Description:
In chain A, strands 1-2 form a two-stranded antiparallel ribbon. The first copy, chain A, has helices spanning 8-34, 40-52, 59-65, 70-82, 104-126, 131-144, and strands spanning 86-90, 98-102. In chain A, strand 1 (86-90) and strand 2 (98-102) form a beta hairpin. Chain A has a single domain, classed as Arc Repressor Mutant, subunit A, CATH 1.10.10.10. The first copy, chain A, is mainly alpha-helical. Chains A and B meet through helix 1, helix 5 and helix 6 of A and helix 1, helix 5 and helix 6 of B. Chain A binds a DNA duplex through helix 4.
Amino acid sequence: MTKKFPSPEAIAAWARLVRVSRQLVERTEDALKANGLPPLAWYDVLHELAEAGEGGLRPFELIDRILLAQYSVSRLLARLEADGLVEKLPVSDDGRGQTVRITTSGREMRRRIWAVYGASIADQMGDKLSAQDLKTLASLLGRLRNPPISD
Amino acid sequence: MTKKFPSPEAIAAWARLVRVSRQLVERTEDALKANGLPPLAWYDVLHELAEAGEGGLRPFELIDRILLAQYSVSRLLARLEADGLVEKLPVSDDGRGQTVRITTSGREMRRRIWAVYGASIADQMGDKLSAQDLKTLASLLGRLRNPPISD
DNA sequence: TCCTTATCGATGCAATTGCATCTATATGGA
DNA sequence: TCCATATAGATGCAATTGCATCGATAAGGA
Lengths: 151, 151
């Protein structure tokens, strides 16, 4: 960690970034709760698994994609399985592991969550900034990532 | 909640925003932990109280400034008090309430946290974007806020 | 004054999270 | 083959969080 201090612009941008993202996520979580739906993290997993298709994903692959701790994923999957939204299959060539696949009702739940989640994104982002501004925003944010995304 | 779907640009910007802010905050929290310092939330409170000066702040005023639930603030203040970083004073004209004031060691702790926090902001934001880009970013984010900030 | 309602802050309890560690299997070298 | 080490995933326990509610004081109207 370099020993130095941030510019006023960096501080202002940081504060905005942290505040705004918290507010947006919170509003979305509230909307989900209000509709009796599970938290965003569930969507993230269901989304990744839906993308992965029939082959499913190993839990450790999921850890890379959604950024959660190993134990968080382990428990999240246990809850999803208990709700019948995913199924765990033993994997032939690695006795330690398993493959997680989304079920039909998992896909159904994903759709129901998206109805609320997508609307929340539209309300909170699409309605506030033009397509051009959204691209600029994404690009600037991409440069903050680690590793940065140039696009 | 309007029933509609977000544009691809809105989805991309949302994903970036959520991911990047999570990553940045996480790295900062890790840096604090690595230096044996308390979480960011402590800094937020100490910062607000330092700004407020001798008069201190009522807990409910703190709730407005840092966006935390009432019970979170109540417990956070209890921990800060237990660590001698803040002190609670009865308030004369309202028997229900109290005034919270930062102590000398609270100011000291704030400085120590800032040494790490500020460096993290500089590393993660100041070094990645120009002052102009940081202003653009803050401005775009401001328009996502509720209520929006025009600047 | 009395009563109803609102506000301030704390807290019991259940659920969730974080940390450390565990079990089981895999891998690679002697 | 045997052993040391690494990786996959689960879990016990303590700390933290979220929800609901509580106790206490305040405010406002009848």
